[in-house]
Amino acid sequence: MEKLISCCGLNCATCDARIATVTNNDELRKATADKWRVSYNAPDLSYKMIDCTGCREEGVKFSHCDMCEIRNCVTAKGFNTCGDCDEMETCALVSGIHKYVPEAITNLRSLN
Predict the structure, then answer these.
(1) In angstroms, rounded to a whole number, what is the distance separating the alpha carbons of residues 102 and 31?
(2) Using CA atoms, how far apart are residues 1 and 20, in angstroms rounded to an integer?
(3) Among 64, 71, 82, 100, which is most buried by a count of CB atoms within 10 Å?
(4) Is residue 2 domain-resident?
(5) CA distances, 96 to each of 34, 58, 61, 67 (Å)
């Protein structure tokens, strides 16, 4: 299975937003927006906002990417991912992701 590891360790290749974008699937965009509106308490999220090629890939980014503290930290430090940082295991920024999606830290460890 293809893996496109984001800054925090999530696998963008399995993200519905990315899949909807690369396949130009508006039905998946709508389903993703419906799901994310509830999951992330984002009532203003429109299916038209579901457009992303992946955090570290060329192309369009989901609007949250510009304000993502994790992505901004990685970029500011000149790293590719949090896996390049000596503080990854104790970092408060990325710990929430790793707590709820443990495979993300496994993905980062596999890159080194």
Answers:
(1) 25
(2) 17
(3) 82
(4) no
(5) 23, 26, 21, 16
